[in-house]
Amino acid sequence: MNSSILKISKVTKKYKNINVLDNVNMTIKKGQIYGLIGLNGAGKSTLIRIITGLVSEDSGSVELFGEHEKDKIENSRKRIGAIIETPALYENKTAYENIHINRIQKGIPGEDCIEKVLNMVGLNDIKDKKVKTLSLGTKQILGIAMALLGEPEFLILDEPINALDPIRIIEIRELLKRLNEEYGVTMLISSHILGELYHIANHYGIIHKGKLIEEITIDELNDRCKKFIHIKVDNSANAAVILNKKLNTLNYNVFPGNVIKLYDYIEESGKVTEILVKEGVTVEQIMPMGEDLETYFSEVIGGLENV
């Protein structure tokens, strides 16, 4: 079984009496690409700042590489590479010079590592170009190269594909997958776009209003997005109780307009209808359907607020 790189237990963080993070639990195992999905302001960046030691949690605990004592965690953070928001770059210096400065700041001896990370990300041919002449996507890849200095085992990227054009998104997507497959780098990648993370990550956490409301694997996500039964009734609250008691399932979400999406009994919509009607629920519409990834994400957070 893979060892855990990161374990977060009951982490809470408040700013001005507002819960930015509320009792968050999360585990990332070695070799995973973990996609952290949430709307802007959901708590993604705060959680990443706690993991990287830029801010402290108010309560709860963080364990890195099996260490949880404060001084040992700080030492473990040397095994992390991170980009939080946009990379800090010197526009009037070359790509090589930027990495060189970052190497000195990190206290990494020797310059061989500069050529190595440039080759890893495929930027060796632009190393002598000034940063101000580079595209936004190339700057983002340069930031990833800087994060790879010191051969980190755990790479943390906060919105790495934000505002990039489709071609650059594909380049960064392929780069990250290659770093994971060829170099064994474990990753935590945050985004508000599930559709893009779907092409990179193999595990996902959905965060909403400071709560981690769901963790799901790529296989589970694919399964959830395949099929469901769309049910429109006269009273969704009563119908939900009946689904629980009579069909022994909680695998559904309730939405405004008395709509329920049931992820069990996909091939037995007749049975579902029969039981609901027998219990006095008027079934206005029932049919098997499927949904895309963005719809799934939207309805997980929307359904949470309407149950």
CATH class of the largest domain: Alpha Beta
According to DSSP, the number of beta strands is 13
CATH superfamily of the largest domain: P-loop containing nucleotide triphosphate hydrolases
Helix run count: 11
Distance between the terminal alpha carbons, to the nearest Å? 36 Å
* Overall pLDDT level: 90
Task: Profile the largest sheet.
Answer: 6 strands, mixed
Count the domains.
2
Order of helices and strands: EEEHEHEHHHEHEHEEHEHEEHEH
Observed structural traits:
alpha/beta, 307 residues, 13 strands, 11 helices, Alpha-Beta Plaits
Please characterize this protein's 3D structure.
The protein is an alpha/beta fold and 307 residues long. The chain has 2 domains: 4-222, P-loop containing nucleotide triphosphate hydrolases (Rossmann fold, 3-Layer(aba) Sandwich), CATH 3.40.50; 227-289, 2-Layer Sandwich (Alpha-Beta Plaits). The protein has 11 helices and 13 strands.
SSE topology sketch:
Blueprint: E1 4-15, E2 18-29, E3 33-37, H1 44-51, E4 59-64, H2 70-76, E5 80-83, H3 95-106, H4 112-121, H5 136-147, E6 154-158, H6 166-183, E7 186-191, H7 194-197, E8 203-208, E9 211-217, H8 218-226, E10 228-233, H9 236-247, E11 252-255, E12 259-262, H10 269-278, E13 283-289, H11 293-306
Parallel strand pairs: 3-7, 3-8, 5-6, 6-7
Antiparallel strand pairs: 1-2, 1-4, 8-9, 10-12, 10-13, 11-12
Helix pairs in contact: 3-4, 4-5
